[in-house]
Each structure stands twice: as structure tokens, then as C-alpha cells.
Design brief:
This protein has about 230 residues and is mainly alpha-helical. It is built from eight helices and three strands. The chain has a three-stranded mixed beta sheet with strand order 1-3-2. Helix 4 packs across helix 7. The chain is elongated and about 65 Å long. The chain starts with a helix and ends with a helix.
Length: about 230
């Protein structure tokens, strides 16, 4: 199955999009990490100001290791920023920090896509790894066991594709909230939003690429089943 030419038809375009997205993120972050904020506010200060403005008092802002390891943990009510984002007063840092603070605001307001994504995490952690393995095993054993096992693998991996789709509105909405609050709170000026947009739009592209990769792989699995039955 790995030598199937059709696999590359499905896999190559989203893979190239993913590589392009990663390049855009790294280049935009590197460029705007060198541009200081006019206000002198760093990433951790920006996040705390946004959380305070949004009435979120139960979320901690913490530094964590790893480049671009920034994330919001809804289970522990913790906004974790990479050390560079946490400490630097740069356009890139406050943009990323504000985006993660946007997730905390989503959590506070009960934003439905975020809640759905959190519920799906356990299933996705299993499906993304085991789904393709079970599918391949099911195809190998289809002659004796039928296609039930293969369809089970597809269903498991389908949860991964659904998770990637649900992630899109979550990330887009967090960036929208971030951009609005950065200006309204005086953290950045309207002129500085060019850099904020470059960083956050590049980050959004990575989620689009991830969704495309998951969907196209799922479609490929379904095409295999269709060819087998025809």
C-alpha cells in the first residue's frame, strides 16, 4: 500500500502545504522577534493584561521550555509560554501570547468548539496512531476476516480528521480575539498590527495544512476500500 502511486496524489499536496506553513511560521516569528513593541510590553505582560481585561483570574501564566511550545491548558487553567515569548517585548512575542490568552477567554465563555476539541483529545490520541495500523491490518486480513477491522481503523482515524476540522474555528477565533484586544488594550498600535497579522496568519496556515493532511489521508483510505469493492 505504501507503494501505491495514488497515495502520493493524496499525500503530496497537503504535505507541501505543511512544509510551506512551517517555513512561514518560523520566518515570520524570527523576523518579528527582532521588532520591539513600542509600548515595551513583553509576552507575559500582554497575556496577563488580556486575561485581566477578560475577567479571567484563575489562569496562571507560566514559562515553559521549547521554541514555539506555547499553549493553553484548559485542564489546569495554565497559559504556558515558551521562554522567548514569555520574556521578550517583541511583536512576535505579544502576538503569540495574545493568541494563547484568546484560548483562555474561549474557555471562560464556554466556546463550544473549544469544549468539543477538549472532549475529543483522548480519542484522537488513540486514533491518530492506531487508526492507520488497524486499517492496514484489516486490509491484510480482509480475505479471512472481511473488512470490519479495516472500517474500524477508518473510523478511528476519522476522529483525527474531525479533530483537525474542529481545531480550525478554535484557532481562528483565538487569533481574532487576540488582534482585537492587542489594539484596544494599547499593547500594540494599529501600525504594529502588520507584524501581528503576519505571525498569527502564518500560524493559522499550519492548522489548515494539518486539516488538509488528515482529510486527504482519510479520503485515501476510503478510496482503497472503494477500489477493493469495485
Amino acid at each position: 500500500m505504501y507503494l501505491d502511486p495514488l497515495y502520493f496524489v493524496f499525500a503530496l499536496p497537503p504535505m507541501l502545504l505543511g512544509l510551506w506553513a512551517q517555513f512561514k511560521v518560523k520566518s515570520a516569528f524570527k523576523k518579528y522577534s527582532r521588532v520591539p513593541t513600542q509600548s515595551g510590553v513583553n509576552g507575559s505582560q500582554a497575556a496577563r493584561r488580556i486575561l485581566e481585561r477578560g475577567g479571567v483570574g484563575n489562569v496562571t501564566v507560566e514559562a515553559t521550555h521549547g521554541m514555539l511550545s506555547d499553549h493553553y491548558d484548559p485542564r489546569h487553567k495554565a497559559l504556558r509560554l515558551s521562554e522567548e515569548v514569555f520574556n521578550l517585548a517583541s511583536i512576535a512575542s505579544v502576538g503569540v501570547a495574545a493568541h494563547e490568552a484568546g484560548h483562555a477567554l474561549q474557555d471562560k465563555t464556554g466556546y463550544m468548539p473549544l469544549q468539543l476539541r477538549s472532549i475529543m483529545v483522548p480519542a484522537v490520541s488513540i486514533g491518530s496512531n492506531l487508526g492507520p495500523i488497524i486499517f492496514m491490518a484489516g486490509m491484510f486480513l480482509a480475505g479471512t476476516l472481511g473488512t470490519t477491522l479495516a472500517w474500524a481503523g477508518i473510523a478511528l482515524f476519522g476522529a483525527t480528521a474531525l479533530f483537525a476540522l474542529v481545531t480550525l474555528p478554535v484557532e481562528f477565533d483565538a487569533s481574532r480575539r487576540a488582534k482585537e484586544l492587542l489594539v484596544s488594550q494599547g499593547i500594540v498600535s494599529s501600525a504594529e498590527m502588520k507584524g501581528i497579522n503576519a505571525v498569527l496568519n502564518a500560524a493559522a496556515l499550519t492548522y489548515v495544512a494539518a486539516a488538509a493532511q488528515a482529510i486527504m489521508q482519510l479520503v485515501y483510505f476510503l478510496s482503497i476500500m472503494n477500489r477493493r469493492d469495485s
